[in-house]
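During the reporting period the student researcher (J.K.) took over the structure-prediction task from the postdoctoral fellow and processed the backlog of single-chain submissions. One of the processed entries is reproduced below for the supervisory committee.
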Amino acid sequence: MSDDEDVQIEGPSLAEDDPMRAFLPTSFGKRTREADIAAQIDRSKRKVNEPTITKSKSQESSSNGASDSEDDSDDSDDEDEYPTSHEMVIKTHDRAVTSLSLDPAGGRLISGSIDCTVKLHDFASLTPTTIRAFRSVDPYETKASAATESHPIHHVEFNPHAGSVFLCISAHPQAKILSRDGDIITEFVKGDMYLRDMHNTKGHVSEVTTGTWHPTDKNLCVTAGTDSTLRIWDINNKRSQKEVLVFKSRAAGAAGRTRMTAVAWGAPAQGGNNVLVAAALDGTLVMWGGNGPFARPAGEIRDAHKPNTWTGGLDISSDGRMVVTRGGDNLIKLWDTRKFKEPLLSVEHPSTSDHYPTTNIKYAPNSTSIITGSASGHLHILNPGNLRTEYTTPVTPGSPLITVDWHPKINQIITGSANAETHVLYNPTMSTRGAVDVMSRAPKRRHIDDNPELTTDQSLGLSGDSIITPGALPGTKKTGITASGKSKDPRRPHVPQQTPFLRSQPDEKHISKNIPLSQMLHEDPREALLKYADLAKKDPVFTKAWKDTQPVTQYADVSDEEEDGPEKKKVKR
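J.K. obtained the following structure tokens:
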């Protein structure tokens, strides 16, 4: 063979469609792994065409065979109109999510839950494989090692004019202002519970139910409590409220007090007077002028909803004219602030406020729609003019949808459900940033440091709280003994068994020989004293010196005549 001839190496011949070609290299050198963004976004697409009620295929085909094409076209149009075609699921809570809020820029999400924690999520640091909260905050936990009380979270809301702080309300008389990183900035004062007149108290005297921010002033917020008051606070002054609005209930047997269940503070987008609207447990809907005076309400509607039912949903339209309420009497009502006497519309909608009082209802941006959840886990988008359902989509089927919100800047809908899931609904073409950026990033490679259970937060450092006593953690305490007789509880010392060679009691012979007067422990003290009686009589120790000089005791002889006693004196007449 000459050098000029080409050397040919016979290799296995594979067909074009052979699956083995997927395992063979196509080029030399290092290959870069690029994420398929379109495929990632397609994987987050929701399956909204699946029926929520399970039926047989034959019944579906027979009943809906003629209108399949029309329904498909309507669904596709609705998906294009509302940002609900795709979703991102966040599972960071352990129990039902009661409140959600996005900052004004739409880059940070906070969620409150019945598990007494507030979770903070930053969209800029999330990837499709690392969707988790960067911090979990218990607003009433003073020290990790101390036995502190915790309270369920009722309401969390970012300041619409300053995204650096948010309002946090728990089942506690004191509301708090936290920073966007979860640090407590302000804790409002608690009022004197022994004062009857609520005008003289400096803060709430009982549990706070909800609250909201001022529509134009970034320093003011309002809280509603079970002490029948609304209190307007200046976040720069935590020692006393700025204004107190006392609502006097006219219900029979209420003694003038009731619980305030919902509050909303709205102002026209083009400017004008703002209004403050609140709902009470006795079914009353009250309206004040947002700028005061607050001595008397501007409007009051008795029996707006059924008394003793929790009206948790309340919102004001962007023009400040319309008010929508969702009560515990399975009704959604629309009100006009200019004619605040009778509802304009009323439609039936199953309520979940008996189990989850924070169930809300919200206006969409520019008040083009109204969104709310349902007990079946569906998201309902209503027409603001006639309250008819325009679009319904399942979010968490079988689990009640508690809280909803529609962010105007990123055009995404966030929902919180009773199964501890937070869903961010979006549309890749209509929505911007937020979940769209998260699902467009390359998946992060799994690393051992990504598991928070195996890492330590270096910002906290290693303090005394990091030292855990053996058996102090919940679930680690063990009871019983092992086969060898040792206790399973590491805090309980080992007690040796009593054997003939190892007694737990000391030897009696050793005590009697080495410890003086040890026999007196088993002797009767009376007998021990009486045995010295004869010796003390014969040889007294203290009176021995006067034994010979003591006089003889002489006693008078008593005659028989004197036994009767002295004669009685004669009584003078």
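The committee noted the following: Residues 50-70 have pLDDT under 50 and may be disordered.
J.K. will present the remaining backlog at the next meeting.
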